[in-house]
C-alpha cells in the first residue's frame, strides 16, 4: 500500500508538470477522465491512491501554471489576475523574479492554510450558520466599495457590469464544456497581448537571481488577505481563487504588483486545501478535483491526514520544479520574436477555444477580448473584469 501511494504521488507530479505548462489543459479534465476510467483503474489501485494522484496533480499544477501565465500571458482561472503584473515584470527583465514571488506566495499560502485548518473547522461549524443569510449582501457591499474607490468610477462600473453580463450569458449556454477558458483568456490574456503587440514591445534579457525582491510586510499582507478571503469563498457556490484574489486585495488594500503576485499564488493553493477541508467538514465539494475525489473515496480522519501530507510533499517538490523550468523559459523567451510569439499564443488560444467548445468558444473569446480592452484603454483596474464570475454568483443568491 505504501509503495502504491508513493507511485500515485509521483505520477500525479509528472502529469501536473504537463497540465501546468500547457495552457488550456486543466486539472479538472484529467480528473474527470480518471473518474470515467475508475471502474478499470480501481482493479489495480485503491481509491485512496487515486485520491493521492489527484491531489498531487492539482498541487503541482497550481505551481507550474505560473510559468505560462508570466511568460506567455495565458491564464488559468486561479491566476488570471496575475497576468498583468507578471507581464510587466517580464518586460522589465524580471520574469524569473515574478515566478519566484508567485510560488513563494503559493507555498507559504499552502503551509498557512494547513495551519489554519482547526480554526476553519470551528468557523464552519459555529459561525458560518450565523453569517450565511447576509453573505451575499457583504459581497455586494465589497464590490461596490471596490468600484467607488476608483477614480474612473463609471468605467469601472461599466467593466464590472459588462463582464458580469457576459458571465451570465456564457454560463447559461448549454453544453459548453469549458466556459472559463475562452472567457478568462479573452478578458485577461488576449486583450493584454493585443495591446503589447501594437506597442512594439521587446522582451529584454531576463535576470536570474537567487534573491527574492519581496518584503516581509508585503508577503504578510498577501497571506493575511488571502487567509480571510479563502474562508469566505468556501461558503459561496461559484466563488473561486480568482474572485478570492479580488476580495483579498480589497481587504488589505494597496498591495503592489509583487505583493499581488504572492497574493494570487497564495489564493491558488489555499483554495485547494480548504476545498478538501470543506468537503471533510461540511460534505460540500467545491473544487472540481475534490468532486471527483468525493465520488471515489469516503474520507475519514486518517485518509484526510494523508492527503494533507501529500499537499506538503507535492508542494515542496513543485517549488524546485517550477524554478528549474522557469530558468529554461527565461533563456528561451529572449530568443524568440515577441510579435511572432504573441501571434502564436493568440492562435493557440483560438485553436484551444475551438477544440474545447467549438465555434461558440471563439465567439466567447472574441467578445471577452473586446471587453478586456476597456481596462487598459480607460486606465481602470483589470480586476473589475472579474465581474464575469462575481455577478453570476450574486444573481444566483438573489434570484
In short:
With 399 residues, the chain is an all-alpha fold. The chain is built from 20 helices and no strands.
Explain this structure.
With 399 residues, this protein is mainly alpha-helical. It has one domain (2-150, 206-339). 76% of the residues lie in helices and 0% in strands. The protein has 20 helices and no strands. The chain has helices spanning 2-21, 27-41, 47-64, 66-71, 83-90, 95-115, 117-126, 128-131, 135-148, 153-172, 180-198, 216-233, 241-252, 257-282, 288-296, 301-333, 338-357, 359-372, 374-378, 387-398. The longest helix has 33 residues, at 301-333.
Distance between the termini: 49 Å
Write down the overall geometry: globular
Number of strands: 0
What's the pLDDT, averaged over the residues?
Answer: 82
Regions with little confidence, pLDDT below 50 for 5+ residues: 77-82
State the helical fraction: over 70%
Spell out the blueprint of helices and strands:
Layout: H1 2-21, H2 27-41, H3 47-64, H4 66-71, H5 83-90, H6 95-115, H7 117-126, H8 128-131, H9 135-148, H10 153-172, H11 180-198, H12 216-233, H13 241-252, H14 257-282, H15 288-296, H16 301-333, H17 338-357, H18 359-372, H19 374-378, H20 387-398
Task: Please supply descriptive tags for the structure shown above.
single chain; about 400 residues; mainly alpha
